Amino acid sequence: MHIELWWLLLIPAVFFTLGWVAARIDIRQLLTEARELPRTYFEGLNHLLNDEPEKAINAFMVAADKDKDSKSLDLHFALGTLFRRQGEFSRAIRIHKSLLERPSLTKEERERAQFELAQDFHRAGLLDRAEKIFQELEGAKFEGRALNDLLEIYETEKKWTEAIRVRKQMDDLAKTPSFKEIAQYYCELAQEAIVEGNLDAAREHLEHAFEEHRGCARAYLLKGDIAFTRNFTDKALSIWGSIASHAPGSLGLAADRVMKLFRDCESEEQRLHGIRLLASWQQEHPSPDIFTAVFELSRSFEPVEKTIRRIKDEIDKRPSLINLNHLLDMQILNAQSQAEQQNLAQVKELITPYLKKTGFYRCSYCGFRSRNYYWRCPGCQKWETTNAHRNDISEGFNH
Ligand SMILES: [Zn+2]
Questions:
Q1: Which pTM does this prediction carry?
Q2: How many CB atoms are located within 10 Å of the residue 204 CB?
């Protein structure tokens, strides 16, 4: 019994010794690994953290040269990305090409190197070479991202048929429908056909646009344009007017076409019909563009007093700086004395600085604003994000 107790006293010492040995082994292991990592890695990291990408690249290049086995794969990928971000495309291309020459790459590593190389070509503006590699990545792990890049290339090059195919592939992969964008591509094709005078082809593209998106306002505008070109005026009016039921928020985009159609009519009765039509649109779906069309048409043949009454009625319902300006223009024309004319001109001068801040269409996604309406926002490159209503009250007066 005495001997067993003595042994028990030794147990803590044994465990201490085992722990000490284990710790020594770990430390040795760590030291070995740390020696394997060149100091330049840490220098590179340090430069990256200090937002010094150029110095980081130099440090990593030295590290990569020292370490040419497969362990440096990630380092090469990181370097390639850094070069690309710095705009040094030829160096990025060189790195990714040299990676692709390694026979030991796994399938996934090879595809990753291909994807990176294709991105280098894309950013460098070598679109044909980028396109070819992105196409090869079909079915690969990077397919989704490759399709995104491919779509960007086709949109840049206005290859709308290819863009439609890629969008459909993307829809199948991500299950996120992009029918609006596909309808826009068909409209682009239709527009090209109209410019070439191939109206039948244009109509066919538009039918595809409607199949994708029944509420595609642009397709109705173009379909109406085709009918108008073929001298089917009533049909054109009816097609443009059908935007009211399919995409009411965009009806204003048709107003200018309708106004021009009636302004050129010989018969006063027809022009009056035009004003009534536009006024009914304005009643149902008010928009600054529709009222501007009413005003322009009224000014072209109605008595000044009548036009003034129309503007005043509109301002009563929807105060607008643009219409106030129209009213002043008409009142100046109708002034009974020189003094009255001068007073009105002074008021007009007062509102001019604010008027310059009106009449813009604005993208609801990025805020880009322009006096022209764009189906694809030049700011964020998104389709149909621009509101079809111009701002008719100067910013700052909206509150
Ligand atoms: Zn935008």
A1: 0.79
A2: 15
